[in-house]
Design goal:
The chain is mainly α. It contains 6 helices and 4 strands; from the N terminus they run H-E-H-H-E-H-E-E-H-H. The strands form 2 sheets. It has a two-stranded parallel sheet. It has a two-stranded antiparallel ribbon with strand order 3-4. It binds a DNA duplex through helix 2, helix 3 and strand 2.
Length: about 110
DNA sequence: TGAATGACTCGAT
DNA sequence: GATCGAGCCATTC
């Protein structure tokens, strides 16, 4: 497993409950600001990782659940978020400004 | 080995 | 502002 992947997973696990962050924010925190797509790619393989990665807390920079289709079932992503107190309407996280959690701000490397 | 792909992002129109 | 197009880079075929 690449360090990049493990780092991504580690950061995602640190996201507080009821919060969410973006692929770009994670990439930036890891020093790979232009590799946001790779973060999503890493998430694609995250379902096989132990302990499981809360990938539902990672969305694109608009708070849109672009990756929900990769969950099984897809509704699981939204359900998990709502269980944690995050309102989601039409795949869009409500109050995104307050829900957004930036690792480069809340985390010290 | 070379080319295509993607759970994204940013800058230009 | 909203929309469109190009850039990015590890992984896969």
């Amino acid at each position: 497993m690449n360090k990049f992947y493990s780092d991504v997973f580690e950061v995602v696990r640190l996201i507080p409950q009821g919060r969410a962050t973006s692929y770009g924010a994670i990439a930036k925190y890891l020093g790979a600001a232009r590799s946001s797509r790779l973060v999503g790619y890493a998430m694609n393989t995250s379902h096989a990782v132990i302990p499981s990665v809360p990938a539902h807390r990672v969305v694109n920079r608009n708070g849109l659940l672009t990756g929900k289709a990769h969950f099984n079932p897809p509704e699981r992503m939204q359900n998990r978020l709502e269980e944690e107190g995050v309102r989601v309407i039409e795949d869009q996280i409500q109050n995104w400004d307050e829900v957004f959690w930036d690792p480069s701000i809340h985390l010290i490397l």
